[in-house]
Design a protein that fits this description.
mainly alpha; two-stranded antiparallel sheet; 2 helices
């Protein structure tokens, strides 16, 4: 199992990860370290443990917001798909109706044409 050393909150940590996930883990560690640095700058009088907890809660809050937005986007996408599906079904039904009307009209025109082209009966004068 691959291992990487990451720097978080002023300390180095050796962590295992899946094959090919080293860069991803390093990026996650940087995100945590950046949040801790941000919290330290904002709350200079707090001890390290509180800073780390606040950073973890802030990251969890960001994740919850992203999940909420993703859920809302999923609902909106589902609604859009349903609307488009209904519109497509309605358009297909109209196209079928129109095709039927055209076929009926063509049959009437053919019948009239046949009637006009048929010989007229001879009159008995």
């Amino acid at each position: 199992m691959p291992q990487v050393t990451v720097h978080i909150g002023g300390r180095n940590y050796r962590m295992g990860c899946g094959e090919g996930e080293e860069a991803h883990l390093e990026g996650l560690a940087k995100t945590v370290d950046d949040k801790i640095t941000e919290m330290r700058a904002a709350f200079k009088d707090l001890d390290d443990q509180r800073i780390v907890v606040m950073a973890a809660v802030a990251i969890a809050d960001e994740l919850a917001e992203v999940r909420r937005k993703a859920g809302a986007a999923e609902v909106a996408a589902s609604e859009a798909v349903a609307t488009l599906t209904a519109a497509r079904d309605a358009a297909e039904a109209r196209a079928e109706t129109l095709a039927s009307v055209v076929e009926e009209s063509a049959a009437r025109v053919e019948a009239m044409t046949a009637s006009l082209n048929s010989p007229m009966p001879e009159s008995e004068d």
